[in-house]
Amino acid sequence: MAEKQREKKGVGEKHFRKIINSFSKIKVLIIGDFISDVYIFGKPFKLSREAPVVVVRHEREIIVPGGAGNAANNLASLDCKTCALGILGNDFWGDAIVKQLSEKNVNVHGLVRSHIVNTTSKTRIMAGDDNTSKQQVIRIDKRHEDPLPSRLRTKLHDNFLALAKDMDAIIVSDYGYGVISPRIINELRELAKQKIVIVDSRYQLLRFRGVTAVTPNESEAEKAAKMRMIGDHDVKRAATFLKKRLNLNAVLITRGNQGMSLLEDNAKISHIPIVGSDDITDVTGAGDTVATVFTLALAAGAGFYDSARLANYAAGIVVMKSGTAVINRKELLEAVRKNHA
Prior knowledge:
The chain is of the alpha/beta class. Helices cover 35% and strands 26% of the residues. It contains 10 helices and 14 strands.
């Protein structure tokens, strides 16, 4: 019973605040799949005469960086020194990502631009009446389907080697679009001997042997471990499998409204309950937020458990926001003040 919901003493609020306030001194490289998240908002106002569908009147639209771009956005909002590394098309959506990240003082010189590829975009149609929250009606994805040209991969690899040596930590945001090559995975394995390397990978988690830690959600952990996770016992089995198979220092599994579960070096699992309401508004991009705060806290000197607790505070904030949301340092400090005991 003690293992199912183990209470563990962590640092006090004052030390948490010290960790958060030191984020501005940390240099992090975010490498992965940069995505343009497009939101089109509208109001349903009639039935179409052409087909049995609702017609939505366009009101406004916004574009925000998604995928690795959301992680970079979170890092910058937390005052971290951030370098972005990925491949974008020379198109409208790529321009939007570069512009927004540059405005947040993210170093975008590592981003490789090309006319040969398209920037991956995810367009969400959000519809609702004036006095209700907009709900997602449909999502339209556009991506570059062909393998990435070798010269772009080579350029990306060269940029990676040039930037990684000066970083305190590296975050991998892998959505399976081909940016994270076997060569880069090998480099990450070597860098993890000296630096913090945190991996958030949707489809190829088992390839990242030897990094510091991985942060899958339940579905990703189930697929990688090839086992169904119904309760805490199954979560521990999956985390133990991943930790041993990949030779990791820690595994952090995010579990939606059940919080998080952390397995450390001592093979004892900590189940960290969700902070705030379990009436979640939107989980879009929450995994990126968890990976960034977890990484920053580790780079600031916190242990795995307290880094996971800070990441849990951050997740509790962004899931209450609509769309691809970010957290800033002020919000995280306030969450610590209100919830830490």
